[in-house]
């Protein structure tokens, strides 16, 4: 579907280009071809910078035939130790796709912390803004991967001592944000995240929030958000709405700065509600639930590759008891992964977010960005752990994007 002139699409040029042009008082009138930024990156030009603030850890992943019953003693079928944490995983995905990530977080000066840093550095992530505590412990997570049900269960131990805002100096904060094209938060380290968000907002740097679940500090951070990616249960839990499409309308109504919200739905794909630039109040209203049903009927059930089905642009989308917003609804499908290739879903949502960060920075339209992010997430599910199978930008499976 061709973009409508009145529809608020993803940036009409990569975010780093837009911010430079906006600083000169120039706003591009046409979409810069996606290939322009990708070509520049491939030819050695500067890649967009993403700053992430949040969780990093070590993951201890044990694959078992089936999840144990209480007081059982079982043996693992496979074991892997690798870096984890929402922010660490999402930025690793972004780095392998070609962005230049920086990260604000904290580890201890222990073996786990040193491994976390070396693994991030190996993927080209700037770790110079990670604080290192001489005492305490670095964060770590036990992950039980159930081979029978293809599920994973996580037991997380936070790092100690935690990062506090006073440890992030004004000089380091300013340096971390200098040249950043977008800032990402997983809502961990919420006090420090709020400090970073306030400064990023003053600099007019776009902010993406990962709303996995209700967390302390989330509501304050959402007020700064330009984009939100959330888990399947979050929108209704946060809004109290009767259904997912109603909850999305409620979120955009309550958070007027947000340009879009994406809900990841696992094997069912994703759903995106995008706000229009212009008011469609004169257009006839269409019910959000009915609109979603109409998109679902267009899904090709025989297709195994990710697709995107988009509604018409600049609709007036309504929800009972909530109101209405001007925008459009997009339904993305997931890759259908053969059972023999599906190894572990750990970090699939993080891989999706890393891909969305890439899509925003390189000017991908939503119709391309959603299948791309689903494809990257699908690649990640073919290996044990969140990072083992994350693809690089040159991966043949991404060539079509």
TrEMBL record:
Keyword Iron: no
GO molecular function terms noted in the UniProt entry: kinase activity
Protein's recorded name: Carbohydrate kinase PfkB domain-containing protein
Keywords: Kinase, Transferase
Stored Gene3D superfamilies: 3.40.1190.20
CDD domains on file: ribokinase_group_B (cd01945)
Entries under SUPFAM superfamilies matching the protein: Ribokinase-like
Signal peptide: none
Pfam families registered for this protein in UniProt: PfkB
Domain of life: Eukaryota
Residue intervals of the Carbohydrate kinase PfkB domain: 58-276, 337-392
């Amino acid at each position: 579907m061709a973009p409508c002139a009145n529809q608020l699409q993803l940036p009409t040029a990569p975010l780093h280009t837009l911010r430079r042009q906006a600083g000169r008082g120039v706003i591009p009138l046409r979409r810069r071809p996606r290939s322009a930024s990708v070509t520049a990156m491939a030819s050695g030009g500067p890649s967009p910078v993403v700053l992430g603030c949040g969780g990093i850890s070590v993951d201890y992943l044990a694959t078992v035939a089936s999840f144990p019953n209480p007081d059982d003693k079982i043996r693992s079928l496979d074991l892997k130790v690798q870096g984890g944490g929402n922010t660490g995983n999402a930025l690793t995905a972004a780095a392998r796709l070609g962005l230049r990530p920086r990260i604000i977080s904290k580890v201890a000066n222990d073996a786990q912390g040193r491994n976390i840093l070396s693994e991030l550095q190996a993927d080209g992530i700037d770790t110079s803004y990670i604080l290192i505590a001489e005492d305490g412990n670095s964060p770590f997570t036990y992950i039980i991967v159930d081979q029978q049900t293809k599920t994973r269960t996580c037991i997380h131990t936070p790092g100690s001592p935690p990062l506090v805002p006073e440890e992030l100096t004004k000089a380091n904060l300013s340096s971390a944000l200098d040249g950043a094209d977008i800032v990402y938060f997983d809502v961990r380290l919420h006090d420090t995240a709020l400090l970073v968000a306030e400064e990023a907002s003053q600099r007019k740097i776009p902010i993406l929030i990962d709303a996995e679940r209700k967390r302390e500090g989330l509501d304050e951070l959402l007020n700064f958000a330009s984009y939100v990616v959330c888990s399947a249960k979050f929108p209704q839990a946060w809004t109290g709405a009767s259904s997912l499409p109603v909850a999305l309308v409620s979120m955009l109504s309550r958070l007027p700065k947000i340009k879009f919200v994406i809900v990841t739905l696992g094997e069912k794909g994703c759903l995106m509600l995008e706000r229009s630039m212009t008011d469609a109040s004169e257009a006839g209203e269409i019910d959000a639930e009915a609109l979603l049903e109409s998109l679902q009927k267009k899904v090709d059930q025989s297709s195994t590759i990710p697709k995107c089905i988009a509604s018409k642009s600049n609709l007036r989308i309504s929800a009972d008891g909530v109101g209405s917003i001007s925008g459009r609804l997009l339904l993305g499908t997931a890759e259908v992964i053969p059972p023999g290739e599906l190894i572990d879903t750990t970090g699939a949502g993080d891989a999706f977010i890393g891909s969305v960060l890439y899509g925003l920075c390189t000017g991908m339209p939503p119709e391309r960005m959603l299948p791309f992010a689903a494809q990257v997430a699908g690649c990640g599910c073919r290996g044990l752990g969140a990072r083992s199978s994350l693809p690089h930008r040159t991966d043949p499976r991404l060539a079509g994007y």
